[in-house]
Amino acid sequence: MTSQTRYEGDEKVANFYKIDVHVHLGISSVLSVAGSTDEIIRKMRLNGIDQSVISPIPGYEDPNGVADSRAQNDGIAAALREHPDHLVRGLGVVEPRHGAAALDEVDRVMTDLGLSGLMFHNDFNGLPLDHPSMFAIVERLARYPDAVAQVHTAQHSVLEAPFQLGRLADAFPTVTFLNAHPFMDTTHEAASLDLGERHPNIVFDTAVSHTQLYPIEHAVERLGADRVLWASSNPYYETTLDIPLVANAAISEDDKRKLFAENARRIFKIEEA
Predict the structure, then answer these.
(1) Is residue 8 pLDDT above 80, yes or no?
(2) Is the pLDDT of residue 30 over 90?
(3) What positions does the domain Amidohydrolase-related occupy (predicted)?
(4) Cβ atoms of 235 and 43 closer than 8 Å
(5) 37 with 87: CB under 8 angstroms?
(6) Pairwise CA distance, residues 87 & 81, whole Å
(7) Is the pTM value of this prediction over 0.85?
(8) Closest CA to 268 of 15, 5, 23
(9) Is 151 helix (H, G, I), strand (E, B) or coil?
(10) Helix ranges (DSSP H) in 126-178
């Protein structure tokens, strides 16, 4: 992929192949944000992002219950088919408040649609991460080898606090949990690093990280470079700050390559371009 990027003049940035593991497709009625495939790819090109892993946007409307989740998942699968050079892997969605009715959709996501796992943002779906419905959904997901569960956390939240993710990780050690935007502030960072040290099946993305006091360096030092994945949270920006945050971090060039692309390739089974 050839990109026109605002960072082309900075060799620290331009020389790294970048796979974004935190990209949302769709319309969020809650945040009044829209991320069409055209908009996602435009921002990829603008920021020099080579490939992306996509999932439905949190806050999509679902008055029809599971049928609306199915439509979101169909949209992810269609985007992967239509833009295979840019959008290389996808995560589906099911809503825990739909209860047992959601479980068949887990199977369809992983078999018929061939996606890599599921995305959860419990501040939007209304039930806590450690609710019994979540355990039932992840139990179904755990039937599939190499399944990934992208789980958003927020330190201030009563629905998606880091410790609740720890309970899921304990219960399902074969699932890789991708903790989305775990370093939003210094308290969130401290909770996330503690979580990571106790749960080896959780990996962490860099989306929406706080930009001072060395969050990337701390994560690499305490968790290892193999467990941190670069991400941007496309489409919620025009120019992402998460690229220079990693490119300018005081870590080795080999570690930067792991964060920007190699870890994503390993976890999502992405062939090198």
Answers:
(1) no
(2) no
(3) 70-269
(4) yes
(5) yes
(6) 9
(7) yes
(8) 23
(9) strand
(10) 132-141, 162-171
The pair of structure tokens assigned to 188 is 């969130």
Q: Is residue 226 helix, strand or coil? A: helix
Instruction: Return the number of other C-beta atoms located less than 10 Å from residue 148's C-beta.
Output: 24
Closest CA to 25 of 94, 62, 74: 74
Q: Provide the token pair at 221.
A: 């030092």
128 preceded by a cis bond (ω within 30 of 0): no
Domains of the chain, residue spans:
11-268
For 71-113, what is each residue's pLDDT tens digit? 999 999 999 999 999 999 999 999 999 999 999 999 999 999 9
CATH fold label, 11-268:
TIM Barrel (3.20.20)
- DSSP assignment of 228-253 equals EE----BTS-SS-SHHHHHHTSSS-H
Q: How far is CA 202 from the centre of its chain?
A: 12
Any idea what the Cα angle at residue 225 is, between residues 17 and 269, rounded to 5°? 55
CB atoms within 10 A of CB 149: 26
Q: Which amino acid would we find at residue 196?
A: G
Q: Report the distance separating Cα 128 and Cα 134, nearest Å.
A: 8
Average of per-residue pLDDT values in the chain: 93
Give residue 3's pLDDT: 40
Residue written as token pair 């305490």:
222
pLDDT digits (tens, 9 = 90+) for 58-69: 989 899 999 999
